[in-house]
Specification:
Chain A: This is Urea ABC transporter permease subunit UrtC. Chain A: Keywords: Cell membrane, Membrane, Transmembrane, Transmembrane helix. Chain A: It is found in: Cell membrane. Chain A: It comes from Catellatospora methionotrophica. Chain A: Pfam families: BPD_transp_2 (PF02653). The complex is a heterodimer of chains A (367) and B (255). Chain A has 367 residues and is an all-alpha fold. Helices cover 73% and strands 1% of the residues of chain A. Chain A has a two-stranded antiparallel sheet. In chain A, strand 1 and strand 2 form a beta hairpin. By secondary structure, chain B is an alpha/beta fold. Chain B has a single domain, classed as P-loop containing nucleotide triphosphate hydrolases (Rossmann fold, 3-Layer(aba) Sandwich). Helix content of chain B is 38%, strand content 23%. Chain B contains eleven helices and ten strands. In chain B, the strands form two sheets. A six-stranded mixed beta sheet of chain B has the order 6-7-8-3-9-10, with helices on both faces. In chain B, helix 3 runs parallel beside helix 6 and helix 10 crosses helix 11. Chain B starts with 7 loop residues before the first strand and ends with a helix. The chains are: A mainly alpha (367), B alpha/beta (255). Chains A and B meet through helix 8, helix 9 and helix 10 of A and helix 2 and helix 3 of B.
Chain lengths: 367, 255
Amino acid sequence: MTNLSPRTRVWLGFGLGAVVLFAAAPALLTDFRLSLLAKYLCFAIVAVGIGLAWGRGGLLTLGQGVFFGLGGYAMAMHLKLADAGEGNMPDFMELYGQLDELPAWWAPFANPVFALAATVLLPMLVAFGLGSLVFRRRVRGAYFAILSQALAAAMVILLIGQQGTTGGTNGLTDIEGFFGYDLDDPVNQRMVYFIIAGVLLALLALTRQLMHSRYGELLVAVRDSENRVRFLGYNPANVKLVAYVVAAGMAGLAGALFVPAVGIISPALIGIVPSIEFVIGVAVGGRAALLGPVLGAVAVAWAKTALSERFPGTWTYLQGAMFVLVVAFLPGGLASLWGMVRRRRERQPDATVPADGDRVLVQEVAA
Amino acid sequence: MSETAGGLRIRGLRVVFDGFVAVDGVDLDVEPGDIRFLIGPNGAGKTTLVDAVTGLVKATGSARFGEQELLGRDVHRVARLGVGRTFQTAALFEELTVLQNLDIAAGAGRSPWTMLRRRGTVPDDVAQALETIGLTGRRDVLAGTLAHGQKQWLEIGMLLVQNARLLLLDEPVAGMSHEEREATGELLGKVASDRTVVVIEHDMDFLRRFARTVTVLHAGKVLSEGTVAQVQADPKVQEVYLGHTADAVAQGAEA
């Protein structure tokens, strides 16, 4: 295992991931469990982005719910309009009866191309605007985290306040179709699962490329010593901005896929608490590794379902305890366990330094 | 103007922190190819002067490098004009390898397309810098695990690949062994042939061996300037050092 070249190991890793997601999981899990897994994989997609922005870039993105929500609402608006049929208003608008016609800002979402593009581009645009302002003013660390949180809170308040056009606290619910496919049909649910799994693998490949590119090295450099980077002639604000915008796009896409998988998007799914939960999954899994965030997000989401089925009410405490334990005793997350075991084993014969610089990253990634 | 083309030319530089004048009207000319040592007691304003020139702190007056005014620009813009600096405590990217550190230093002008790909081969200038600083054999080691002296050399190597024409080094030999100092001094000599070098240093022995010219700062002002012998013979300098920090000279004598 240790004598495989990094390249082979990466292909093996992706192959294994594909087998697990596309063959093993659908064969072994019931339709109900598979649809739960689809939901977890959406969280995993958000986590991949957080891993890049936080793990590699040091940006504690505590407000990814905003981007998840933007993507989710963009998708749900289109699906609601498609469900209602041409020229009709979505059911909840008819129900509240305050509006005579569709609001102007809803109209473009009837176009599937516009809506799909918006699920990714809208979050990226918002992240670009916010990031440009914040990073150039050198807002960092806890201040950046608090600002992200505030944005998540503001978005929830806005959505709840505009009940007539956003569905308020209920959100956008009862989504029946997905581009002409009936979401009640288990076959179509499976298709949605496969799309999500495919997107996750594709984004992992993209993120891996980013992490191993020169940009990825520069991002780590900015994380560890922003001022030094500045003295080398780079503007760190731009370096961070790229990671932040990419992470936002991933969260938006995850939100968009979450809607057909679960059939609902609501303020409770995108506010402060879910935003923090995204980060907890990443921290538990290991934020700087490629797969750490994915495994952490799935594990935490799965534990939440499993434990709240059996011991409702205790989950919140368990989650908090888990977070504290990881931060205190395993700052590299579960992904760093593998590396620790490995290093201990390697130390005995010969404590050699990695022959190739990338090996260090690869070890982390392979973990 | 012609004699300072490519050199550093500072006029009336003034830095004030909340009413405290750290640098008080300094004029300084450093020619290309010179190795200028900047000395002075603690609080003389040496590091502040470098901070001002590199854009880290606000200053009034003028600091020109070649044709370009440096004051009033952002740190990264000053760096792109060919001004590089090191810090008292080595500021490397410790989680990255020696090669990665140098590659980042060499890359401020890279296109987005290049940035998004992996590094294929080691760029020529990086390979050359590795050779110059004597770290070719350790290029894949994490920078954080280097010995103290090697860290400082790596910093200098980063300035070389960054293509800095003006090198501002803040106490490059502090904490180094005798052999490391010698090696650093020789490195400075090699590097200075086609660059302008300014070194802040407390070590008098190192200064005597490697300085070409010396400027003494005291309380934010230039106290004396000239060759090592001229400065050492200057009674004002002797007074400042013997009067306040006698150990600096004494220490140098025995080091």
